[in-house]
Specification:
The chain has about 290 residues and is of the alpha/beta class. It has two domains: about 10-145 and about 245-280, D-Maltodextrin-Binding Protein, domain 2 (3-Layer(aba) Sandwich), CATH 3.40.190; about 145-235, D-Maltodextrin-Binding Protein, domain 2 (3-Layer(aba) Sandwich). It has eight helices and twelve strands. The protein has helices at about 10-25, 80-95, 110, 180, 200-205, 215-225, 260-270, 275-280; strands at about 60, 100-105, 120, 135-140, 145, 145-150, 170-175, 195, 210-215, 230-235, 245, 250. The strands form four sheets. The chain has a five-stranded mixed sheet. Helix 4 links the parallel strand 7 (about 170-175) and strand 8. It starts with 7 loop residues before the first helix and ends in an 11-residue tail after the last helix. Residues about 1-35 have low confidence and may be disordered.
Length: about 290
């Protein structure tokens, strides 16, 4: 199972394909007068030429609260946590020093809805999907992730070794997430319970209102280590059969910034920055068994 991003050369090839579609979908020019679909290198992605919410400033959004290990101390602007660090690395590739980056709060469910955005891009573990791409844009992927099952050590499901072993479990997950969608693979006998955020799902597990919850693997490590006493990760699995789940920066539909955002992410793949940030912030044991 893939738990790390693809290599830089693959990333650059994929971004080249993205430009082909961007040229077809984008308007002839954006507010800066630069054709967004024609930005084929980072040298063309300068702050003065980018269509920004606020001129001269890169406005980045994420949810509130912003959880570990993606952010630290619920403070996206401190540069700590994987996604905070990635956001600043993207900003740097686009020519924005930290002082020229502004953070705004945006709920997960609101961000994925169609409509005008108050940010240039949002970073909040958004899984790239065709369904969501009808309403918003995504950059090239910056992380490949697995889903995980979390339960209490005392649960009768703690020793589950397959999806079939979890069919009788009462499951829960955050609303509008791929974690919730991934429960379909288990085919539970009862409808899963839905929570506003993963922390609330974790509290429901701690209170034994559910038998197990589903979350992405890095978040599962954090929940079991810091938030849910006497809990464990039962196993990991892909959100969809035979298709790795990947996270991308979220932008408004047909945003003129999308090609440059993807170029920046591709460059971070190629120069090894994403791997270094992953190793720093998402380092974890590899002994979690896979469930089928």
């Amino acid at each position: 199972m893939k738990l790390t991003p693809r290599g830089g050369l693959t990333a650059l090839a994929a971004v080249a394909l993205l430009f082909t579609s961007a040229c077809a979908a984008a308007s002839d020019s954006d507010s800066s007068g630069v054709a967004p679909g024609h930005k084929t290198s980072l040298t063309q992605c300068k702050p003065a030429t980018l269509p920004l919410v606020k001129s001269g400033t890169l406005t980045i959004a994420t949810d509130d609260p912003a959880y570990d290990p993606w952010f630290s101390d619920n403070n996206p602007s401190n540069g700590k946590g994987f996604e905070s660090a990635v956001a600043y690395a993207v900003a740097d590739k686009l020519g924005f020093p930290k002082a020229k980056v502004t953070w705004v709060k945006q709920g997960f469910n609101q961000a994925i809805q169609p409509g005008k955005k108050n940010f240039d891009f949002d970073i909040n573990q958004f899984s790239i999907s065709a369904k969501r791409a009808k309403a918003v844009d995504f950059s090239y992927e910056y992380y490949t992730v697995a889903q995980a099952i979390i339960t209490l050590k005392s649960s009768k499901f703690a020793g589950a070794t397959s999806m079939a072993d979890l069919k009788d479990a009462k499951l829960g997950a955050q609303i509008a997430t791929t974690s919730l969608d991934a429960i379909d693979q288990i085919e539970p006998k009862t409808k899963p319970l839905v929570y506003d955020d993963t922390s609330k799902a974790g509290q429901a597990l701690a209170n034994k209102q559910v038998d197990a919850i589903v979350a992405d693997l890095p978040t599962a490590y954090y929940l079991t280590a810091a938030e849910i006493d006497n809990s464990k990760i039962v196993g990991q699995f892909d959100a969809a059969p035979y298709r790795p789940e990947t996270f991308g920066l979220l932008l408004g539909k047909n945003s003129g910034l999308t090609p440059c955002a993807s170029l920046a992410v591709a460059a971070l793949h190629k120069d090894g920055t994403l791997k270094k940030l992953e190793d720093k912030w998402l380092s974890q044991a590899t002994s979690v068994p896979e469930l089928y």
